[in-house]
Automatic annotation (TrEMBL):
Keyword check for Signal: yes
Keywords: Signal
Residue ranges constituting the ER-bound oxygenase mpaB/mpaB'/Rubber oxygenase catalytic domain according to the UniProt record: 122-341
Cross-referenced InterPro entries: Lcp-like (IPR037473), MPAB/Lcp_cat_dom (IPR018713), TAT_signal (IPR006311)
Taxonomic lineage: Bacteria, Bacillati, Actinomycetota, Actinomycetes, Kitasatosporales
PANTHER family found in the cross-reference section: ER-BOUND OXYGENASE MPAB_MPAB'_RUBBER OXYGENASE CATALYTIC DOMAIN-CONTAINING PROTEIN, SECRETED PROTEIN-RELATED
Species of origin: Streptomyces cinnabarinus
Signal sequence bounds: 1-27
Keyword Hydrolase: no
Protein's recorded name: DUF2236 domain-containing protein
Length: 399
């Protein structure tokens, strides 16, 4: 275990609702995945055999700027592949640009409906919970910081919103939706990063791996998103029927598959996801220079938008959803009055909003404005109000 003692990991796990710590050696031993333990290598030794060689070739031959231009108009799942793509790249896209055979349209439709019904909580948890958690996942923080996108976090955050936004749309997975294309573009960006980052002396100086973004890393990130949000909704006692939970998991299973993670390594149930998360996510959470800088940038950006709350409130909300331990790692300044407000006001807000208590708390409108403003931030795809297209980087952050 890297920087945490076993006991600290356990207490952090409890705070994040990601409990139960197994021996790290067994971390990936039983993924509880669709086909059981596979005979092949674990996901920490799997990158992307389909996308990586193609992207390395595209980058070496200087085709990427032309691909970025050509695919700008490729948006909907049923859009034809754009013309002007190099043959090899178009052949790759034709091969992967489809839902996996096991995708269940009924579950995906239900997930989309659930995402719409619960969007305010989801945006809040993805944005302030998962978004800031990503800065204490050292591999993710280091690769994001040292990749080209790390130099412009506003732009990067807007692109990441595109992923969450497209996933949350009603017809996300349907032919007129956009998620399959967005996921495919993201998969290609990750493949480019695998080729580019190892050439960065800055990244090499801090990385504990030679190639970034393994299937295991993607699963870790999935746990910081889907598994974490699922747990929090239950902890917050938001009504969450079993069929919604299953549908929500299914949409994530399809999303991770579209990002290139082999089916046999994708958890089958929330219980399995939770157990895997406790093994592979909670124990590795720790601060890094890069992560602290990214968190400050992300929270600074969020604070620029009028959420109707102070930066102290924002800091305390992050502490509330991620624990004081994480807040201390990131140096989030304390605001004890705001902390008291969050800890009493938020549960009361949920109870009233969900019709579980008839008493409207005095702080209701403040929290209401806060969740609405955060949701708008997502729904407008960042502060610009326009789609920020996902583009393939051609280099790394300079320094
Ligand atoms: C790019 C989502 C896992 C590192 C992106 C983009 C999206 C995205 C939407 C494109 C937007 C952009 O350019 O910023 C996801 C999702 C993941 C995941 C949904 C898992 C469920 C990971 C992991 C790492 C990572 C595990 C590293 C450990 C990066 C980097 C970029 C990127 C470095 C490129 C930033 C640049 O443009 O330079 N990701 N990602 N991602 N992702 Fe991921």
């Amino acid at each position: 275990m890297e920087n945490l003692s076993r006991r600290k990991a356990l207490s952090l796990g409890v705070a994040l609702g990601l409990v139960g710590v197994a021996h790290p050696v067994q971390a990936w031993a039983s993924t509880g995945s669709a086909t059981g333990a596979s005979a092949g290598p674990g996901p920490e030794w799997i990158w992307d055999d389909a996308a990586d060689p193609v992207m390395a070739s595209m980058l070496k031959s200087g085709h990427v700027p032309a691909i970025n231009t050509a695919w700008a108009s490729w948006v909907n799942n049923n859009d034809p592949l754009p013309s002007g793509l190099p043959t090899e790249f178009a052949a790759y896209l034709r091969q992967v640009n489809q839902l996996p055979s096991w995708a269940d349209p009924a579950k995906l439709a239900r997930a989309a409906d659930f995402n719409r019904r619960r969007d305010t909580y989801l945006f809040m948890l993805y944005g302030l919970g998962s978004g800031i958690m990503s800065t204490v996942i050292p591999r993710e923080a280091k690769s994001v910081y040292w990749s080209a996108g790390g130099a412009d976090m506003q732009d990067r955050a807007a692109k990441t919103f595109t992923f969450g936004y497209d996933l949350s749309q009603l017809g996300a997975f349907e032919p007129t939706g956009q998620f399959v294309v967005t996921a495919n573009k993201t998969r290609v960006v990750h493949a480019a990063v695998r080729h580019l980052l190892p050439q960065s002396p800055h990244w090499r100086a801090v990385a504990d791996e030679t190639i970034p973004i393994s299937a295991a890393d993607i699963l870790v990130t999935f746990h910081s998103l889907g598994t974490y949000v699922h747990r929090k909704l239950l902890d917050w006692k938001i009504p969450f029927p079993a069929a919604d939970q299953e549908a929500f998991l299914h949409s994530w299973q399809v999303a991770i598959a579209l990002l290139g993670v082999p089916h046999e390594h994708i958890p089958r149930t929330w219980a399995e996801a939770q157990a895997q998360s406790a093994r592979v996510l909670t124990p590795i959470l720790s601060p890094s220079t890069e992560g602290i800088a990214l968190a400050e940038e992300l929270l600074g950006l969020t604070a620029q938008i009028d959420l109707g709350v102070t930066r102290g409130f924002l800091n305390e909300f992050v502490r509330y959803v991620l624990s004081d331990e994480v807040g201390d790692w990131l140096g989030l300044k304390r605001d004890y009055a705001a902390a008291a407000l969050v800890r009493t006001g938020w549960p009361a807000f949920i109870l009233f909003r969900e019709g579980l208590s008839p008493i409207m708390p005095g702080t209701f409108y403040m929290f209401d404005q806060f969740v609405r403003a955060l949701a708008m931030l997502f729904l407008n795809k960042g502060s610009s109000g326009t789609t920020t297209p996902i583009t393939i980087p051609t280099g790394n952050r300079a320094g």
